[in-house]
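Sample intake sheet
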Amino acid sequence: MAHFRTRLAVVGSVVALTAGALLPAQSAGAAPSAAPRLEWVALGDSYTAGAIKAAGDTFEVPRDGCERTDQSYPQIVDRDLGSLVQLTNVSCGNATIENVSFRSQEPIGHHLPPFSEDPDYPFPPVPPQSEAVAPDTDVVTVGAGGNTLGFGEILFNCLQLDQGSGGVGTPCRDELADSIPERLAKVSTEYGDMLGAIHARGPSAKVLSVGYPTIVPQDTGKCRYNDWEQFASITRGDLDWLRTDVLEPLNAVIEQATHEHGDTFVDLYHSSRRHSVCDAGKWVEGIFTTFPTEPAMVHPNAMGHQNAAAHIEEAILAG
């Protein structure tokens, strides 16, 4: 960590000198040397990569199926901080914690049957994301865990189990609740292993674990039953269960594992409480952004990524 603090101190000094150059000069002198950039590696799943049209355009040519978009938070932070950072973004839609740590991944692009087909699918495998971390890496951001928990699978099951319920009851909770503790335990174990792997590859890096934003509102009365631009057929009772027993514990498990490794947890949940899928100013899209043509499968839009970027910039520059 001393390596990171030294680099950040130099960056801060040059920023201060640059700001001072805007004032009337009192004496002539040599121009300050360029600050060393902070080598930053962004790891994570689709909540990092962007993945949906509401989070911008895919910019890789040719496509690798990871669906990194130009309005995702790594790209926003990169633009905001400019010459202060050198970004390597290897985040990938559908990545599990193991895909970050040590397992190669076969990206799926927009291939999400029955909702969408991707003409370029299948894509070649991409290497484990942690391989992008090196001894000279200064900062690592990582946002993962949802796919290891199986949140997409849980969501799809809820859509099916709650069909025909009329919005009443908790069919999904009744079917799946018993599996959640084991799923969360798996996330906890693998998240700790992942952080260990990151530190082994980048021993001087500052590691920032990025949590998940608010998806389901505290007041599920805001959510309209059978609205595919929200949660479609999922009942309010099951939405409450998803919030309190699945999503909030997921963030808690990630935060605990992060603190156990002496790293920094970036909390996005509290700042996004009034911007859930069911809020007017939503930062996370529903099952579809525009039904039935633009599936989003409950992912942050550009505003959600802008919020994440603000918190991550603050954490990177905090030293």
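Comment: The first strand starts at residue 38 and ends at 44. The two ends are 9 Å apart (CA to CA).
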